[in-house]
């Protein structure tokens, strides 16, 4: 829209300009002297130039963390916000750590052209689901190196969805020799060494809820430890500085049975171990309890007979 200098709006309106950060400055209008040639000479007129600035932003959203078992498969989710999609309007790029090319969707169809070699024959997509706005894909035969953040770039929506993949090892199964004894719950890093102690953050959990033992930036932290584990846990500093996060649990009780998970934060790695008693230990416990219950009525009969 162009308005001449003699237009009434120029006499009453405030002036504004846009600064380098895209903000309005209400100090002055920006006038331009424009030269026009009408055949009789050059006519100089002033015009207001209204600039419409369009700022394109990328919407970034972090989805829930996904956990996959080493050697298994996992689905990494990504969904469109558009209700109606056409094949020509679907272009999506999946990347690992913002650099490695994992999977593309071009005009609604999956493509592995230019795919990073480490994902070869390990990626599956569903073209029918892509047309419905579901850009998720399956990653098979999971490796330790697959851990990390994956970015789903939806080109038409100028959006990025990020999902974090953590790798979990198969369950390990130790047995406790007896109630009141000790057991070592194994956990170890896949790295040969750490740059600094600050790189070491590990959390042990019992049945995913009870806090058993924490190492935060290379230092033991028991401030939030569940009370049932007070003075019953041990870890050797020299060992964990070298990547051995195995935990010794003392004075083991029957209530300690269950699954213990070791979360190695900087590696996005989860190792799990099931703690349970041997069949012999359980059978001995099962026999002891009825003997005590049967003893009470027996003593009662003897006392009544004597009276």
From TrEMBL:
Cross-referenced InterPro entries: Ig-like_dom, Ig-like_dom_sf, Ig-like_fold, Ig_sub, Ig_sub2, Ig_V-set, T-cell_Activation_Regulation
Membrane topology type: Single-pass type I membrane protein
Gene3D superfamilies assigned: Immunoglobulins
Keywords noted in UniProt: Cell membrane, Disulfide bond, Glycoprotein, Immunoglobulin domain, Membrane, Receptor, Signal, Transmembrane, Transmembrane helix
Keyword Endoplasmic reticulum (UniProt): no
Domain Ig-like: 71-168, 170-278
A single BP term in Gene Ontology: immune response
Subcellular location as annotated: Cell membrane
Top-level lineage group: Eukaryota
Name of the protein this chain belongs to: Uncharacterized protein LOC113065096 isoform X1
Organism the protein comes from: Carassius auratus
Gene that produces this protein: LOC113065096
